[in-house]
Amino acid sequence: MAIREQLVEYRDGETLLEGFFCYDDSYAGPQPAVMLSHAWGGRDEFIERKARRLAWHGYAAFGLDMYGKGKRGTTQEECQALMTPFVQDRALLARRINAALTTVKGLSQVDPRRVAAMGFCFGGMCVLDLARSGADVRGVASFHGLLKPNGLPRTSKVRARILIMHGYDDPMAPPEDVLAIAKEFTEAGADWQLHAYGHTVHSFTNPTANNRAGGMQYNDVADRRSWHTLLQFLDEVLR
Question: Mean of the pLDDT values across residues 34-53?
Answer without folding.
Answer: 98
